[in-house]
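Good morning,

Attaching, inline, the backbone tokens for the sequence recovery test we're adding to the shared suite. The designed sequence is right after.
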């Protein structure tokens, strides 16, 4: 705990990368593994001398500091300094935590394994969902994008980039380099190198294009519901709808690639939330903010604003429709065709609205967690449970989109099968009644009995037929009338 060593006295003439700390000087006592505990100020200019020298030593300079020098240095650093999370991060090289690296709150092997394997499961679900959407969109379209309606085109664009990000999530920690400046990174499942890490980081960043397509999809609902755009009008504007997400998505991905920003982010390779590699004098947090935090924040605002506006438009129209129905009912100045047309238009608008809100819900399940993680200045302050929930939900966008995309079709099929079963049920009742015509209820005498005889038969004033669901398998008259109202022929 004396005067910190002068970095200029620590020399290394070799130009080859070496470990950050010498592992043979391991320090295992509790105080050494809990660095930066002092909150007292001191006379040393920590910010401009030793921390900057320490950062340069770790990220730029080719010389080695022993664990003893490292601990001596940390004893004079205030806990609020930015170097402290980094010191805690690499304490495992000096024997802390039994030589095991703690990251994102995962201080056991089981916790680190969970962070690596959960996104593989949810990423696989997302990949399957996105592939199913893609295949369904191209089915019957002669494999030409121009023949696909605009809504499906936008969902297709969203799904294609979800496929990229899902594959990147499935690889999980595997592409992360095994070594960092000659030291074992101790990331669970890491077997990669710099090239594999760069490739994964590029596709993770490219996957953000699906978020941009979410914003454009909300614009689509504004045009269709708010301004009554028709399909031919949307087709004319298709380049204006597709261009922004593609330009921003590919532009940001290649920008980060050109700047060499992709590196170990513990869960995968992307732009790290804080500096863990050579930065060439540029702050990583600013680059992360510009590449992810700001774009996602803008997308969230656009989606929320557009869908809120669409909801208010539909609600206002619904209110006007109710007033119109009341006035026409009083005056009698209405026609069946006009009422039916307006009712059909209302149902269609509501269906489109709820589908749009469902896509927004799928977006909000996945992306805000990612936004909250990367927006935080220090990932070490985020609890482990947050990351567990995050790796469950962040890769899940494609799966949730598939639920929204196929839901109307599944509901329609369910209702169709339900009607078929009920119609079959009514048919069986009719057949049984025809076999026993004497027991068919009379139109003039049928009523619900108010009392029964000792033998269980109907009382006077009713037919001899007992409308017991257990006897006939259904309440025939009631079910028949209900099926007639639903348009099923029961005669």
């Amino acid at each position: 705990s004396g005067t910190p060593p002068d970095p200029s006295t620590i020399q290394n003439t070799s130009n080859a990368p070496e470990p950050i700390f010498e592992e043979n000087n391991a320090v295992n006592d509790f105080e050494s593994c809990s660095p930066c505990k002092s909150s007292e100020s001191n006379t040393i200019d920590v910010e401009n001398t030793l921390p900057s020298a320490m950062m340069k030593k770790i990220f730029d300079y080719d010389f080695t500091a022993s664990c003893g020098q490292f601990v001596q240095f940390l004893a004079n650093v205030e806990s609020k300094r930015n170097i402290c999370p980094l010191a805690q991060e690499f304490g495992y090289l000096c024997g802390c935590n039994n030589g095991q690296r703690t990251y994102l709150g995962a201080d056991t092997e089981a916790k680190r394994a969970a962070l690596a394997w959960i996104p593989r499961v949810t990423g696989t679900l997302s990949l399957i969902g996105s592939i199913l959407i893609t295949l369904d969109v191209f089915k019957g379209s002669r494999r030409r994008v121009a023949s696909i309606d605009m809504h499906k085109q936008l969902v297709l664009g969203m799904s294609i980039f979800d496929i990229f990000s899902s594959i990147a999530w499935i690889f999980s920690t595997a592409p992360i380099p095994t070594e960092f400046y000659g030291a074992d990174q101790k990331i669970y499942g890491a077997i990669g190198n710099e090239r594999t890490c760069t490739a994964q980081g590029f596709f993770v960043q490219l996957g953000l294009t699906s978020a941009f397509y979410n914003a454009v999809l909300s614009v689509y609902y504004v045009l269709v519901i708010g301004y009554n755009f028709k399909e031919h009008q949307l087709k004319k504007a298709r380049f204006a709808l597709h261009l922004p997400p593609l330009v921003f998505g590919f532009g940001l991905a290649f920008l980060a690639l050109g700047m060499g920003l992709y590196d170990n982010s513990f869960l995968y390779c992307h732009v790290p939330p804080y500096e863990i590699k050579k930065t060439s004098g540029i702050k990583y947090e600013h680059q992360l903010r510009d590449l992810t935090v700001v774009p996602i924040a803008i997308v969230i605002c656009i989606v929320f604003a557009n869908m809120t506006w669409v909801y208010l438009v539909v609600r206002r129209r619904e209110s006007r429709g109710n007033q119109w129905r009341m006035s026409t009912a009083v005056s009698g100045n209405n026609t069946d065709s006009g009422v039916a047309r307006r009712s059909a238009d209302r149902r269609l608008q509501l269906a489109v609205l709820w589908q749009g809100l469902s896509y927004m819900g799928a977006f909000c399940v996945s992306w805000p967690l990612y936004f909250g993680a990367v927006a935080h200045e220090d990932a070490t302050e985020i609890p482990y449970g947050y990351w567990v929930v995050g790796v469950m939900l962040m890769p899940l966008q494609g799966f949730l989109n598939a639920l929204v995309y196929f839901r109307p079709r599944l509901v329609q099929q369910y209702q169709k099968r339900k009607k078929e079963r009920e119609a079959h049920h009514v048919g069986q009742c009719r057949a049984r009644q025809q076999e026993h015509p004497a027991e068919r209820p009379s139109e003039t005498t049928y009523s619900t009995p108010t009392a029964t005889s000792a033998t269980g038969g109907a009382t006077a004033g009713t037919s001899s037929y007992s409308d017991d669901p257990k006897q006939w398998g259904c309440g025939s008259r009631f079910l028949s009338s209900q099926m007639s109202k639903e348009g099923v022929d029961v005669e």
